Amino acid sequence: MYRLQEDRLKEWIAQAKPKPLILRGARQVGKSTLIQSFAAKMQLNLYEINLENHPEMDQVFQSMDLKKIIQSIEAICDKVFQPSKALVFFDEIQGTPSALSALRLFFDNPKQYFPVVCAGSLLEFTLESYTSSMPVGRIEYLHMGPMCFEEFLIALDKQSLVNLLENFSIGDDIDAVSHGKLSKLLREYFAVGGMPEAVESYRKQESLKAVQPILQFILDTYRGDFYKYGKKIDQRTLKLLGASFDFIPSNIGRKIKYSNISRDEKSQYVKSAIKLLSLARVCHLVHHSSCSGIPLKIQKSDKVFKALFLDVGLMNRQTGMDWISLNALDDVKLVNEGSVAEQFVGQQLLYDREGVTPPELFYWQREARSSSAEVDFVVSSGDLIVPIEVKAGKSGTMKSLLQFVVEKNLDFSIRFDMNSPSQNMISNSSKTGEFTLVSLPLYLAGQLPRLLEGYRLQSATGSGAK
User: Given CA atoms 328, 330, 333, 334 in this order, what sign does their dihedral have?
Assistant: First the structure.
């Protein structure tokens, strides 16, 4: 199945001397399959080594002898090494941390060069532990998450709908037939999610029921990973991994309070458990930011955050929300009463199309007795700060958004709902007078970075929103 990151890989390997590339992402998001598919399409000789199965490679990498490393690659792959059409892939590299330090050999060697890719299911732990040994300036990263909605559509042979999404501009309309099709497929995506194995099953069998055992297996696999953490972490933290793993999918969009996860353990252990899940990219922390300037992360709070789960399909499986339940919710209830829509929007926004930027998101909140407020997400495009609400109501229900717009003196905002696109000028009863509210259907969430860039550039030239 096509992944958007293939285009980034083509750009990477087309360089005169590409740096070793490290794929970063949660288990089973398709990192290994991406490299295998890419090598086949580019007609490259793939030398793939799962380092968990070859612990003896640790000493080979420690020697920092490129000739010995190549000899070992030949021996394990049982074929002569041909650098001109080679792609070396070290999978599960976290099993051999010394390989990370040895990556500089592949880039610095002036006589013989060949591209190298690395990946690993618990790689984030290794990267955090071996920062001082990393060959800074000699490697690149490619970040991967679950399949986005557009990739889901491509897998289901809905390229015409993908073209519609990719050519949409703020101010455009979407015809009723296409809107209906996309809304139906969006609900299917909520149930299936973006884990490649689940999408592949749905593509072949067109059965939502057949997807459920796959999602459960993936969840069980993550739970099995907890025991791998046990060698490096406090046992009390280890016990809280399961509690945190269960808590997050049921509390999407809510500020995390450690006491709600466990009243019996000290907050430091709950905090450590959540950090581990975040490192494994099983969840993503959405930090509060004061959002008073660019970049947003400079003003973020490490103590105030909410969390997203890795994938909407996994979230719904974990919480018991099946296709029948999802389909029974009308549009208003789906957006306002559940966390499904916020999980979906956040998931689409976390990973950019190229995979170059590490996944991160922010939101804004004010906690006060008389004027509490919260904006679901806040993003930036250039110098443009954009508040995002995931709501189905009219302007009168957007008290928090109005407070944010007035406080930050903004003139543009986004609302995601289940309706067709619209654009309105909203009075904010302040000196700024009014602001633009662009309402977009949920299925356009993945296009938002492109849409904001187009809006910002066209506004700068005075050509209007479109």
Answer: positive
Q: Which of 408, 371, 413 is nearest to 391 (CA)?
A: 413
Is the full-model pTM beyond 0.90?
yes
Residues pairing with 289 in the sheet: 300
Residue positions counted in the chain:
466
Distance CA(48)–CA(57), nearest Å, equals 13
- Vertex 119 angle, CA 51 and 49, to 5°: 35
121 near 94, Cβ under 8 Å?
yes
Band of the pLDDT at 396, cuts 50, 70, 90? Answer: very low
pLDDT in tens, 95-154: 787 898 899 898 887 677 789 999 987 777 767 766 556 677 889 999 999 999 999 999
Radius of gyration of the chain (CA): 23
- Ramachandran quadrant class, 92 (left: phi over 0; alpha: psi -120 to 50; beta: rest): left
Number of H helices, E strands in the chain: 20, 13
Question: Which tokens belong to 93?
Answer: 């590299």
Residue with tokens 């295998």: 36
Distance CA 161, CA 427 (A): 35
Residue 222 pLDDT grade (very low, low, confident, very high; cuts 50, 70, 90) = very high
| CA 170 – CA 393 distance, rounded (Å) | 20
Taking only the tens place, the pLDDT of each residue in 337-352 is 779 999 999 999 998 7
Which phi and psi (to 5°) does residue 280 adopt? Answer: -75, -5
How is 24-47 classified by DSSP, letter by letter?
E--TTSSHHHHHHHHHHHTT-EEE
The helix (run of H) or strand (run of E) holding residue 302 is strand 300-309
What string of DSSP letters covers 400-446? HHHHHHHHHT--EEEEEESSPPEEEEEE-SSTT-EEEEEEEEGGGGG
